[in-house]
Amino acid sequence: DTGVSQDPRHKITKRGQNVTFRCDPISEHNRLYWYRQTLGQGPEFLTYFQNEAQLEKSRLLSDRFSAERPKGSFSTLEIQRTEQGDSAMYLCATTLWTDEAFFGQGTRLTVV
Amino acid sequence: RKEVEQDPGPFNVPEGATVAFNCTYSNSASQSFFWYRQDCRKEPKLLMSVYSSGNEDGRFTAQLNRASQYISLLIRDSKLSDSATYLCVVTFNAGNNRKLIWGLGTSLAVNP
Fold first, then answer.
1. DSSP-assigned letter for residue A70
2. What is the pLDDT of residue A71?
3. Banded model confidence at residue A40, pLDDT cuts 50, 70, 90
4. Are B104 and B23 in contact (CB under 8 A)?
5. Would you call B98 an interface residue with chain A, using a CB distance cutoff of 8 Å?
6. C-beta atoms of B43 and A45 within 8 A
7. pLDDT tens for residues A5-26?
8. For residues A21 and A19, what is the distance between their CA atoms, to the nearest angstrom?
9. Is the predicted pLDDT of residue B5 greater than 80, yes or no?
10. Backbone angles phi, psi at A86, to 5 degrees
11. What are the chain A neighbours of B87 within 8 Å (beta carbons)?
12. C-alpha–C-alpha distance, residues B10 and B48, integer Å
C-alpha cells in the first residue's frame, strides 16, 4: 500500500494519559499536515511540516500538543494529559509539489 | 469573514436530480482549488481539482470564478451513492507556509 498510513486506527485512553499517533506519508511527499476533525465539522488545522521543518502550528493548539517529523519522513503527534475535549478524529495529509492532499484513514481518539 | 465558506446544508434531493454547491473564499491570492468527498467516519478523498477553465468528470462539473471568488460543484443525475459531505479547499502561500484552508463541508443526501 503506497498511500498515507496512520497508526493506530483507534485509541481509547483515560483522561490524563499521554497518547502518540504516527503518520507515514506517501514516499517523497514533502509536505505533511495534521488535522483534527469532529462530527459535522471540516478538518481543523493543527500543524504543518515541510520536510523535517515544522513551519506552522495552530494558535488554537495548546502546549499539550506536540508534533515531530525527525527525518522528513514519518511524523508523530503527541497529546499530553489528554482531556475529554481531545476526543476527535486526527487526520494526517501529505502533498508533493502540487496541492492535492492525500489523507490517511485517521486515528479516532476517545478520551474517557 | 471566514477564509472559506460553504453552505452546510443538508441538501436533500431525489435520485436523478441536479444539485449545485458553492464555496466562497476571501483571499484573492488563492492559487489552487479542490473539491473533496467525505463519507461518514471516513477520511476526505479528492474528488476534483478546479481549474480556471473549469473541468468536468462524468456527472461532476467544477468551476472557478475568480472575480467573485467562489468555486462551484455541479452534480448531475444524482445517485444514492453520491450521499456524502463535500468539502472545498483553497490553497495559498503565507510566507514559507503553503496553507490549505478547508471549508466545513456541505452535506448531501440523495433519496430514492
1. T
2. 86
3. confident
4. no
5. yes
6. no
7. 999 999 999 999 999 999 999 8
8. 7
9. yes
10. -80, -10
11. 42-43
12. 21
Look at B43 and A98 and tell me if their CB atoms are within 8 Å. Answer: no
Determine whether the interchain pair A99/B96 forms a contact, defined as Cβ–Cβ distance below 8 Å. Answer: no
CB A3 within 8 Å of CB A92: no
Q: Per residue in B78-88, pLDDT tens? A: 999 999 999 99
Alpha-carbon distances of B71 from A12, B38, B78, B95, rounded to whole Å: 39, 18, 20, 24
SS3 A79: strand
Asked if A106 and A7 touch (Cβ cutoff 8 Å), the reply is no
CA gap B55, B21 in Å, rounded: 15
Q: Which residue of B has its CA nearest to A57?
A: B97
pLDDT band at B89 (very low <50, low <70, confident <90, very high): very high
Question: Which of B60, B62, B102, B63 shows the shortest CA–CA distance to B77?
Answer: B60
